[in-house]
Amino acid sequence: MWSTVNKKFKKYPARKALAFKMLDLGLRVDKDSKIYCGDLKISDSALAKTVDVDRRIVKSTVNIILNDEELFNIFGNIIPAGTLLKNIAQNLGLGVIEIEVGEDNKGVLASVALIASENDIDIRQAYASDNHSESNPVLTIITEDSVPGDLIKEFLSISGVVKVSIC
Which 8-state DSSP code applies to residue 94? Predict the structure, then answer.
């Protein structure tokens, strides 16, 4: 997906920045030439301001997406993932584990889930940033209860894990 968007907008840096922001935010392009987050219509000017481009860039990017089957198959089917509880976890009495991974990160989520399970830690939410769009992707695990600090060593022993923090 990232390579397709990168290739299609290679000659247009502002449009490419906008397209990547739309992916990052989970914004969908509909056949009515409008941009949506779920069923909420997003104004061209608000999105343009967020990416620091002219609103005409938004219109032209949407037109390119609508007229390109490969791009429309991506942007026409995006569904926002919902609320990430990371920033409000402490207010809700939840725990947070953040795990930065390197390039070789296959199986990290499974290994983290196994360690959590072995320690009777219930996972409420898991979110992994895209390793194709970020140089240091982070796996964020939200748990039902706080996580004991002595598990940091176990998480660090997982192949591909670079850094661990527990909140």
Answer: -
Tell me: the pLDDT tens digits for 62-105?
Answer: 999 999 999 999 999 999 988 889 999 999 999 999 999 988 78
- Going from the C-alpha of 80 to that of each of 28, 121, 122, 127, the distances in angstroms are 9, 27, 24, 13
* Residue pLDDT, tens place only, 20-68: 999 989 999 999 999 999 999 999 999 999 999 999 999 999 999 999 9
**Predicted TM-score (pTM) of this structure:** 0.76
- Parallel, antiparallel, or unpaired for β 138-143 and 35-37? unpaired
Specify whether the CB–CB gap between 147 and 97 falls below 8 A: yes
Question: What order of strands is seen across the sheet that includes strand 95-101?
Answer: 123-128, 138-143, 95-101, 161-166
> Tokens 């850094």 — which residue?
163
* 43 vs 34: CA distance, rounded Å: 8
